[in-house]
């Protein structure tokens, strides 16, 4: 439909002869209606030359070559000034497009400018005068200047597709419009995994850092790393991942970047996102430094193992008590009660895991015990080991430890015994006499008073 309207619009500028316009219009309707002008491509529609007084370039120009020819032919005239005012050179670098009544300028159906105004020599309703090189011309919005929808137009664009200037083909009238920034092309997604680095944080520990990039609408959403030791790969949303290996070895570590592109997640490997990790086995240092013995009571003793371990794991010990018995422990302390009092040598055998291999080391202690002389089943320092005070060969708690019985004394009948007996009796009598005499003297004194 716009092809037909382009034809009609040419007559906007043919005001001098209405009969010619009517005849041409009727002829055009007959011919182009039959040939199907409605199917013509807008940008390639044949121009209808405008040869009236409003045309800036009389009868217009169909292409850049014709434009240059007329431009140079009119060098003494006003064309250089008019086109120079709108930065239009004589050597056009243009593409075919159309300018429309709605104020748009289009190329291949795409709007490259808006608010279009055409410049002519004659005033019409809606136009405003402008002065160029001392002469007056008229700038009119397309909505007022165009009778029909659109006109074939030569359009200049810059390298980025931005509108520069335009010239209506049929009349050479410049188009002044507001450039419409071209729609930026859809960015092309780009993403790479650039580097996998490993930093030692411990004997068997490493911190891995994945460097990756995504642009053009692509987005990094996660990471995956295979540590190369047979364990399951680890997923993470962080580009920094810590890991501790179980043992020494050489490991090839590989990483993958997860990128979201057009709503889908793709996995991005990379030759640069691999790393070799060497875990060296450190020297192990382990020993049993002492076996402490503390007597608890009687024949019971407490044993404590002292040890050192570096780069080795303690796995328990077996304690041989020296009496034909032993005990396996997981800790470092154990107690034992002996059945006999004698000397013993106690041996502790410690086990350590060194790089997955079990290693043994030993230490020992001695017990020196003296039996009770009277009861060998007891140690000498036992409270029950005291001697019988009546018989040193017996223990104090022996039922035979008894005090001896003293026999009763017989009567004495010898001369000495008789003499002593008489002396004692005389003494008693004498003492009694003195006592009685003293009582009498006391009584007499009391009565005399």
Describe the structure.
It is a single chain. 24% of the residues are buried. This protein has helices at residues 2-10, 18-35, 64-73, 79-85, 142-145, 415-448, and strands spanning 95-100, 105-107, 110-120, 128-132, 135-141, 150-157, 163-168, 174-179, 190-200, 205-215, 219-226, 234-236, 240-244, 249-261, 264-268, 274-279, 285-297, 300-310, 313-320, 326-329, 333-337, 344-354, 357-367, 387-388, 391-395. The longest helix has 34 residues, at 415-448. The strands form 6 sheets. A 6-stranded antiparallel β-barrel has the order 1-2-3-8-7-6. With 449 residues, the chain is α+β, with helices and mostly antiparallel strands. The protein folds into 3 domains: 2-179, no CATH class; 190-279, Immunoglobulin-like; 285-367, Immunoglobulin-like.
Identify the notable features of this structure and list them briefly:
Immunoglobulin-like; 3 domains; 449 residues; 6-stranded antiparallel beta barrel; alpha+beta; rod-shaped; 18% helix; 25 strands; single chain
Brief overview:
With 449 residues, the protein is α+β, with helices and mostly antiparallel strands. The chain has helices at residues 2-10, 18-35, 64-73, 79-85, 142-145, 415-448, and strands spanning 95-100, 105-107, 110-120, 128-132, 135-141, 150-157, 163-168, 174-179, 190-200, 205-215, 219-226, 234-236, 240-244, 249-261, 264-268, 274-279, 285-297, 300-310, 313-320, 326-329, 333-337, 344-354, 357-367, 387-388, 391-395.
Domain count: the total is 3
Mean pLDDT: 83
Terminal-residue CA separation: 185 Å
Question: Shape, please?
Answer: rod-shaped
Question: Which class of secondary structure composition applies to the elements?
Answer: alpha+beta
Taken as a percent bin, the fraction of beta residues is 35-45%
Helix content: 10-25%
The total beta strand count reads: 25
Total of helices: 6
Q: Describe the strand arrangement of the main beta sheet, using strand numbers.
A: 1-2-3-8-7-6
Low-confidence stretches: 1-44
For the largest beta-sheet, the strand count, sense and barrel status come to:
6 strands, antiparallel, barrel
